[in-house]
Amino acid sequence: MPLTSLPNLLTLSRILAIPLVIATFYVQGDAARWFGCALFSAAGFTDWLDGHMARRWEQQSEIGRFLDPIADKLLVAATLLMLAATGRLPGGALLPAIVILCREILVSGLREYLAGLRVGLPVSKLAKWKTAIQMVAIGFLIVGTAGPAFLQVVTVGNMLLWVAAGLTLVTGYDYLRAGVTHMTAPAPTPPRHGKPQHLA
Predict the structure, then answer these.
(1) How far apart are the C-alpha atoms of 71 and 73, rounded to whole Å?
(2) Ordered structural domains, the chain, with CATH
(3) 24: closest CA among 41, 2, 7?
(4) What is the pTM of this model?
């Protein structure tokens, strides 16, 4: 499947949106925060849309499988780091942010190792829920104090990020357990050398 297929272009657009989201952190004013949230939300939506379209149109490809998880991790990691760097990540949300980033590194390492064994690491339903809650939480934190006072946007974002971190620990453990199963499996018996034996 070519790189220019629509699902792959949507994945690439998620990567291209990252510098734009980062740029909004350097612009003062509430409008910039809302615009940054809109960009982040649109990029997050393409995470669902590109996979849905690839399956429905039978346009799944190796390059899509490679780029999709990378795009997600880059978007989340870059935004969390910018929230922390600009002081817009409340102190209570720093720990779950670290947990989420560490889990992403762990899963990336497991996928790379298992790929060498030609073993896939499918995304669980719980992991999809984790991703959805995580995206909503980060969107709330991007808006921050620019949101309506009655909604307590920062508090809601903080709470959702903790929920996402909890699911991160559960799904990270599931992935690690699956990886360890393959790591500790006995090595296949190498074929014997020499003259082959024929059955009578």
Answers:
(1) 6
(2) 6-179 (1.20.120.1760)
(3) 41
(4) 0.81
